[in-house]
Amino acid sequence: MPRREEHSFLRTDATYVLVGGSGGLGTSQALWMASHGAKHIILASRSGSRKEEVKALLETLRGQGIDIVALRCDVSRYSDVEKLVSFANANMPPIRGLIHGGMVLRVSLQSVEISIIVLTQQDTLFGRMQFQDWLEVLAPKVQGTWNLHNLLPQKNMDFFIMLSSIVGVRGNASQCAYSAAGAFLDAFAHYRRSLGLPAVSIDLGKIDGIGFVAESNEQTSKRLDEFGVSAMNERQYLALLKVAMEQDPNQIITGFTPYSPDHALPEYQVNTFAFFRRAGEAMKQSASDDGSAPTRVRDALRLATSLEEATTIFCTAFVQKMSVLLMVVAENIDFSKSINDYGMDSLVAVEMRNWLFKEMDIAIPILELLVNQSLSQLSGKLVRKSNLTKSLFTNGDA
Description:
- This protein has 398 residues and is an alpha/beta fold.
- It contains 16 helices and 11 strands.
- It has helices spanning 24-35, 52-63, 78-91, 131-151, 167-170, 176-194, 211-215, 218-226, 234-246, 274-288, 293-303, 307-326, 346-360, 366-369, 375-385, 390-394; strands at 15-19, 40-45, 67-72, 95-100, 104-107, 110-113, 159-165, 200-204, 206-208, 231-233, 251-253.
- Helix 1 links the parallel strand 1 (15-19) and strand 2 (40-45).
- Helix 1 (24-35) packs parallel to helix 2 (52-63).
- It is elongated and about 75 Å long.
């Protein structure tokens, strides 16, 4: 069994590869992973250990007893990845995890490695783009990912994380190559999962304090704001990495500004993004209720003078909870339909059952909750099971 410290979740007997790890984001990732148990780290980038900040990182972590190396590696070249894997096999424990954040973007005629969405003066519409520029942008994301997929271990990998971009989800007319590269990573995550292999794509927006945007000029950050990209901080980004490593979702999308009818992004009106619109509406509705809402409902149920009144009170509260759990606008939930009509699966049903027990004093099996019956009928049955409405039945109202 791997050795772990109590506060750690990463293996001490494994090697972790960070591609594109020579920038601020890579430095942050390496320090964070070392603080959570990682003892063997490979930073793979085209610049290797030439940058002063990389040299400082190596010195810091080696001083803490971390086995860390910075290798020159262009992941779009099969031979470079082959050499990286050969080096790891000969000198380090088995590779168990990857964070692929390398990217090439042409800025002022110079290629730079980044791992975050960028908007520059050199962004070009597809019809005006040079084919070589298209190839350079796609190479690390597309060919690089294929090389990593083919050469890294197929078995016993704990995580295979690819840093994509919100542009791959939303699109951007002047960043067609970047959008295509991001969309490829999202699709590739699903492809690996279909093979039974771990894979997560994280569609990044803007990260405050670290990464290319933080190190760039204010104009880049301003253009991202105008594009409607919301920011996260370093702590939030690292928390997302932990989710990707431990929970292994297919895809994590960040950077969408919360939906608001007053200033919604145009994308929210497209069916593709209807989920985000519904989620925003449900969150806004949930936020409008203060913390005393459950207490008010409980008091109202206790004071109800008839089963009909109690059922109406309960059904309203039940629909509000459905709205939050299923991200469906409450006004669109029809009391004559069943809970199954709104996509209530067994996992969400567990949350609903826990809420019923905690807030409404109702104990009910999950299967009974998922029986095909209207919400009105279900509410009537649940009200009869609540300890809050015992007085109604004591007085003979049933």
